[in-house]
Amino acid sequence: MILVWLIVIPFLGGLLCWYSDRWGKQTPRWIALATMLFVLVISLWLWVTGDFALPAKGQSQWLLEWRVDWIPRFGIQIHLALDGLSLILVALTGFLGALAVLCSWQEVGDRIGFFHLNLLWILGGVVGVFLALDLFLFFLFWEMMLVPMYFLIALWGHSGSAGQTRIRAATRFFIYTQASGLLMLVAILGLVFIHYGNTGELSFSYGVLRQTEVPDAIAPWLMLGFFIAFAVKLPVVPLHGWLPDAHTQAPTAGSVDLAGILLKTAAYGMLRFGLPLFPEESVAFAPVAMTLGLVSIVYGAVLACGQQDIKRLIAYTSISHMGFVLIAIYSGSELAIQGAIVLMVAHAFSSAGLFILSGQLYERLHTRDMRKMGGLWGRLPVLPGFTLCFIAASLGIPATANFVGEFMIMFGTFPTAPVVVVIASSGLVLAALYSLILMQRVHFGPVYREGPLPGPHWREYFMMLVLLALVLLVGLYPQPLLDTTAVLAGNIAELFAGAAGDHLIDLSGEVR
Fold first, then answer.
1. Are 313 and 487 in contact (CB under 8 A)?
2. What confidence category does residue 456 fall into, taking pLDDT thresholds of 50, 70 and 90?
3. DSSP letters of 419-488?
4. Which of 470, 458, 345, 475 is nearest to 407 (CA)?
5. β-bridge partners, 80
6. What radius of gyration do the chain's Cα atoms show?
């Protein structure tokens, strides 16, 4: 039942925030913060008390599972389950959700209750995505994230932008994700009706549909429906068109949740549903997926180098980082898959830090244009140092979490796809270039405007220090993440090995 509460609490908290708006501007903020901290505490408690030892073959991989019939006539259940991967991502949602509330404390000044309603409902939908095993329920939560995110961008978008620009960015985000979601719905229904044709029973159960025999002529198309939906949200080039505008126009809290959490729902969907439901088709599609990952790495890094808007630059770096995740997922290597999970967590921390810093710079300079910054080192206390640290983390400097994830991905992928790794490494070189561009334009060079600039508030210090500590903690001691996700990564690697046939991939990532 605790799994149900992990989902219900954000939705109830959002409604309470909306209602409490009449009690004062600070009340919704404190309620939202308490709500997400409660989700985080429950997740950490489950993590500390959970047993993540490798189970015996055939044993259930779920730490917790809860199931009840919802619409029995159509085989729809409320089926929730928690394993190592979903637990890490739920905890990440609680943590970044609390940070999103903190970084919007001064930024959002109107309709505060409604703002936190939308913010918490996004996070509630994300938690539902990470816990749902019934495919109808998964799709319901997948779509539930869209409407509140639309309002977050359209109503509280960047105050320096015209309203029409915010609405256009929000509409593009909605159209991209809604259209791709419909493709996934068609694929889910196709799988359900094929199962019905085989057995005479309707079911949306993940475990049941995994055993469904799908005709060879249809299976690739169903797999593609899932892949496109996840590729749009990841995002993968050329399906990334919504991301730069959405990040640029979103409030800081929206950018933190978008980069830190929403993009991870796509990678989670690939690992949880896309590959296990269609293992043979995924193996056959792997060269295409890895090529798209390479294109995303290089394309995102190259375009990041040419941006003048600081939030747009950070958005393109996210495309590049998620390209590494896509390559790892389709590599079939246990080591690379665990590296992808580490990189997902690391990117959440580093990108959240950079977006929060960009929001703090905007509060002081009232611009996102890096050409109108410059000379801030020495004039703005502490923030340039934090910027340098998070740029180093995003770049993948040793001892940071990003380094661990990228190293594991390349080391695990190299035995089966050395050419892919060699080309992907060029993205790291370009990462150094756009990192230097950001640092030089914002904090060095000639002073663009004179006058004193206020230093960070204690709340800003707290957010930066906690994020930086986590980046270093995961970079220096990633073992808890690796132990928690070992079962899932091993299962995916074994699935690939069985589906690959002649191209067997050992669980260690070695070709035999």
1. no
2. confident
3. HHHHHHHHHHHHHHHHHHHHHHHHHSSS-SS-S------HHHHHHHHHHHHHHHHHHH--HHHHHHHHHH
4. 475
5. 66, 132
6. 22
Tokens representing 64 are 């917790």
Q: Give the integer Cα–Cα distance in Å for 386 and 360.
A: 12
3-state secondary structure of 41: helix
Mean pLDDT value of segment 221-234: 94
Cis check for the bond before 238: say yes or no (omega within 30 of 0): yes
Q: Which two tokens stand for residue 102?
A: 């903190």
Q: How many CA atoms lie within 13 A of 90 on its CB side?
A: 33
Give the phi and the psi of residue 369 in degrees, each rounded to 5: -75, 115
Determine the average pLDDT of the residues in 341-354: 94
Angstrom distance (rounded) from CA 70 to CA 334: 36
Per-residue confidence (pLDDT) for residue 448, from 0 to 100: 67
Q: Indicate the helix (H) or strand (E) that contains 56.
A: none
Rounded to 5 degrees, what angle do the CA atoms 177, 180, 185 make?
Answer: 115
DSSP-derived 3-state class of residue 227: helix
Under 8 Å between Cβ of 499 and 280: yes
Q: Which two tokens stand for residue 157?
A: 């978008």
Instruction: Give the model's pLDDT for residue 57.
Output: 42
Which residue type is seen at 443? H
pLDDT at 90: 95
User: In sequence order, what DSSP letters do the residues of 252-294 get, joined into one string?
Assistant: HHHHHHIIIIIHHHHHHHIIIIIHHHSHHHHHHHHHHHHHHHH
Q: Which two tokens stand for residue 90?
A: 């739920």
Distance CA 63, CA 57 (A): 15
pLDDT digits over 373-405, tens only? 877 777 777 888 888 999 999 888 999 999 999
Percent of the chain with pLDDT strictly greater than 90: 56
Residue with structure tokens 């699935």?
A: 495
pTM value? 0.91
Q: Which residue has the tokens 């790495």?
A: 297
Q: How confident is the model at residue 508 (pLDDT cuts 50, 70, 90)?
A: very low
pLDDT value at residue 294: 94
Identify whether the C-beta of residue 288 lies closer than 8 Å to the C-beta of residue 312. Answer: no
